[in-house]
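Bumping with the actual sequence this time:
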Amino acid sequence: MKKIYASLAVAATVSAQAFAGVNSQKTEIFTRATDYVMTEKLATGEKINGPMKAPAAKPNDNAAYAYDCINSKEGGGPESSALYLEFNGEDVTIYGMFELAPIKGKYNATAGTIRVESQPIFYKYQNESIYLYPKHLEFDEQGKVTSDTYVPYIEFTYMPQGVQLQNGSVICVGGWFANDGDEIEFTVPSLKGAGSGFGWYYMNRLKTIEETYGFPYFQYDAAEWTDCDDASLEDGWFKALDGVGYPAYNVKCQKNKANEKEILLVNPYGPNSPYAQVNASSNKDGYILLNIEDPDCVLVRPYVNANFDLSRLYQVSELANPIFACNKEGYLNYVEGWTYDEIKEDAEAFDDPMSTMTADGVVTIPNARIQGDMGAYLLATQWEAEGGIPIEMISTIKLPANALAVKGIINDAENVPARYFNLQGVEIANPEAGQVVIVKKGNEAFKTIAK
């Protein structure tokens, strides 16, 4: 595919505007803990009363986490973004911490830790590679920073039971917790220790998506899904890469056994898709999850990894960040907590299109969005052309009939005897041959001629 849009152009050199000095108030920073959900303020002066006692345990497989930290760069402060952790044995890759550049770490299954050492990252500043430098802060009794020292690494500890604050509340359940005094600094070697750089992040927490937004990161479990016939996908999530895309193609379709309004597209950009030639992760499983509970407001659930890897398109192998596919309605409902009615009212007020489904299962998604471009795993973003002009992203999905069927109708009909009624609705015990009757069997009702 031809790369024609500015949003896909990876700048290996970071501009000087992004380079800022450390906040002059850094020496007065108190230890603080992330005791908030989404955009609420941090609790100033809240100290950690030690991590809860919890055995080391292997976390779930690859997952996204809400990244909470303090950014002490000039003009910075509490921040909440999102990261994606990819495990491959002992090797861990953290996407989203610094734009598209991946951060490498080592996973210790026995200790339940991820160790992140000093390392260069993809981007450059004035022909120097930008580095991640771990540091350690020391505090006095009043909580003021008394010294900061470069160290070989920092560690994130997996906390299945969470971390308990001094006020008794528990945070970071099932997430990753770095020591209060650990700091991540991004700068170049020539300015290391000079108080200039791209960011200083401390109080680093990787909370689960479920703890932050109330719904879990999607993990596929085959036992929870049943096969349907193939769906047809005319993709709009990645058509914007060249403005042409591909005609509709078949994708494996499943529905949730517990909630049949959840429909899963399996490997939409996998080896059997036309995108396999440009997707560097076409050999990895990926998914798009639809919620068709309200046909007038179809949701595409966020934080579901479609596993589209842009590194071939960027022609930079280091930038293999996976992309998540969602839509505007899904982001507003799952992440922002909007109701169906609020989403519809907002769309009506601004005359915006809605993602909908027809009675025969044609889903039209005019608000297709992605998570993961430029490390933006927090927001649902839209591709842009030169000049920041949004590119139209419309996906059309034709669901198979057996993905729309209501569970149990046929079985109910088979397990109960038929009842007969005349055309006036009066029940007939033994209809006469040739009589037109209505037959009710379980949840089925139909008209026939008695024999």
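The tokens above came from a reply further down the thread. Confidence is low (pLDDT under 50) at residues 1-9, 22-45, 407-413.
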